[in-house]
Design brief:
It is a single chain. It is built from 15 helices and 22 strands. With about 450 residues, it is α+β, with helices and mostly antiparallel strands. Strand 15 (about 345) and strand 16 form a beta hairpin.
């Protein structure tokens, strides 16, 4: 492998997860960390560590000059951005290239093509993927939005073109709501993403959120590793993910894989990525977006296929071919991931940072816990509230549900003022709607409002 030392431009569980694969591949690692993460597990797990700034992300993990300086100072020849932060920043990828550093991800022009969620609709439609009725590109004014709303038919959804992570999305059910949704989404998109552009689509109220895992290499090979169901979510933030997607007709499953490969090939996609779809009750699927990075929920696919997605990312970034073909992809059993956050569901999911006086993860057959924390660590208030990802595998979905509940019951997390989503996750897993797989993306919101 032409890459020898990898700087991990991230923090928490994903930084630790990348460091582990690098070690298995014989690659040296460099951690970058903020003042708040000085004693974090991912820092100790790397061969070298460089302090890059104070706690606020814009002055540390998002501050490109500090990240690049750390790479140059330590002789890192590659940067893995993980997810979030700089992972989908095409300008950052260009800066890396300009300094002779390999960016572990798609080429900048591909990131730009798929990152503009208004423009990528047209690209995917040209590749033969089904798309929802909506705007051809960004919507330029409230008047244009209202005219388009009448043309598409209500309800409609307004989305930030540069959005991600479930932010910058609003549903409007009539003209008055659309005016407000357009104003709020535009303002939030400008504030959060630095780009106020928005686009519109017809809203599908009762749908499943299904995504397909992709890998591509520089030789033009694109493969998919099956789909994940991410329908249990609150305010577009995923709570529980599983694979394979339950009750998905086989012909729809095959179509989604074919769509994902065709769409990725259309834009010359390389590395790991995810193609997201909505599937309505009739089984009709429509394209949503492409995430040009590793996903939070990637362990679900790893448990099902046995493929180390980060290892494949690193191989492709080093100019190597994928280590397997589409015909060699085998999906076995069922896997479920539960996101454990330091949040209080009873208080509107208010973050509850604090010191983890007790942190005792579960174990046993088919159980994986990805976490950046250990007992005695402090969950800082400066970043995402994710504490751990509990991932289980079992031969059947029913067994996987039982195993996830058992593991959650074992998971001990305590600390002054610290609450977690564990009780809610167990509650959701026990619901008959989940057992029967009749839930949609609106289910959690409806359940919590009962």
């Amino acid at each position: 492998m032409s890459v020898g030392k990898v700087l991990i431009a991230n923090r928490g569980e994903i930084a630790l997860r990348i460091a582990r694969t690098c070690r298995e591949l014989g690659l040296r690692t460099v951690a970058v960390y903020s003042t708040a993460d000085r004693h974090a597990r991912f820092v100790a797990a790397c061969d070298e560590a460089v302090h890059i700034g104070p706690a606020p992300a814009r002055r540390s993990y998002l501050y490109v000059p500090a990240v690049i300086e750390a790479a140059l100072r330590t002789g890192a020849d590659a940067i893995h951005p993980g997810y979030g932060f700089l992972s989908e920043d095409a300008d950052f990828a260009r800066v890396c290239a300009g300094q002779g550093i390999t960016f572990v991800g798609p080429r900048p022009e591909v990131m730009e093509a798929v990152g503009d969620k208004a423009k990528v609709r047209a690209l995917m439609a040209a590749a033969g993927l089904p798309v929802l009725p909506g705007s051809e590109g960004a919507v330029g004014s409230p008047a244009e939005a209202e005219s388009l709303g009448e043309e598409i038919g209500y309800p409609v959804i307004v989305k930030a073109a540069a959005g991600g992570g479930g932010r910058g999305i609003e549903v409007a059910r009539d003209r008055a709501e659309l005016r407000e949704a357009f104003r709020r989404t535009t303002a939030l998109a400008q504030q959060v993403f630095g780009d106020g552009s928005v686009y519109m689509e017809r809203f599908v109220p009762a749908a499943r959120h299904v995504e397909v895992q992709l890998l591509g290499d520089d030789a033009g090979t694109v493969v998919h590793l099956g789909e994940r169901d991410c329908s249990l979510q609150r305010r577009n933030q995923k709570l529980i993910e599983e694979a394979p997607s339950p009750l998905l007709p086989e012909q729809v499953r095959e179509a989604l894989g074919a769509y994902a490969v065709a769409g990725a090939a259309r834009v010359g996609y390389t590395g790991a990525g995810t193609m997201e779809f909505l599937v309505d009750p009739s089984g009709a699927a429509t394209f949503m977006e492409i995430n040009a990075r590793i996903q939070v929920e990637h362990p679900v696919t790893e448990m099902l296929t046995g493929v180390d997605l980060v290892a494949e990312q690193l191989r492709v970034a080093a100019g190597e071919r994928l280590s397997f073909t589409q015909e060699q992809v085998t999906l076995t059993g069922a896997a479920i991931e539960c996101r454990i956050n330091a949040e209080d569901p009873a208080a509107g999911f208010r973050p509850t940072p604090g010191t983890l006086a007790v942190f005792n993860p579960p174990g046993g057959p088919g159980v994986r816990v990805d976490s950046g924390f250990a007992q005695g660590d402090r969950v800082p208030p400066d970043y995402d509230s994710l504490i751990a990802k509990l991932v289980v595998w079992a031969p059947t979905r029913a067994q996987a549900i039982a195993r996830a509940d058992r593991a959650l019951a074992e998971f001990e997390v305590e600390g002054p003022g610290v609450a977690t989503t564990i009780p809610l996750l167990r509650e959701l897993l026990a619901l008959p709607e989940f057992a029967k797989a009749t839930h949609t993306t609106r289910f959690v919101e409806e359940y919590l409002s009962r």
